[in-house]
Amino acid sequence: MKVIDLFSGLGGWTQSFLKSHKYEVYRYDSDPWLADVENTEIVDLTTHKIAAIDSVELLVGSPPCYEFSLAHSAPRSIAIREGRLWQPNMNCVLAFFEHVNRLRPKYWIMENVVGSAEFINPILGMEPRQIIGPYILWGNFPLLDLSESELKKIKAHKKQAGDKHRWSDHRGSYRAFVPEPMSKALLRSIASPTLEDWL
Questions:
Q1: Range of the domain at 48
Q2: What does the pLDDT look like over 173-195, one tens digit per residue?
Q3: SS3 breakdown of the chain: % helix, strand, coil, rounded to 5?
Q4: Most exposed among 48, 115, 162, 169, judged by the fewest C-beta atoms under 10 Å?
């Protein structure tokens, strides 16, 4: 079964799928620093359409959150403090959705930060399907079922990653890494038969 990971970063969403050895995982990101991440192809998804892949089980993606972030030094926060209107660049979100429409996966899921919903909802024509701590999820995926201990790890991840890599040039990539409990929960939800599978 085939899984596509767009704006894949360090590969967090699809780490459990890769480890299971039951899925063909294709990862795409534009940052050359990520070229050594397993199964990653470096490509600008806003200008390049990935080749058609038949029978995609799952398409996941986390378009960069910088445009939506309310962190103190992010452009949106600076604009708010200066009293300026902020209009984020939506090219990555549009590119993700174009791939969903063209590749027509059985399931798809897009993740972003809390501050993105007001901009993303109108483009996707839907509200988030699930919110898990700081992760806002849109799509048609089976809901992720997480234990209390998994939720605790997920909620702590961004701060821990930010603190650990505070002085790294790639701190954003470490903070954006989708923690393993999320990947495991997604794998469980996708691998579990649904009513549709029985009909």
A1: 2-198
A2: 677 778 898 999 999 999 886 54
A3: 40, 15, 45
A4: 169
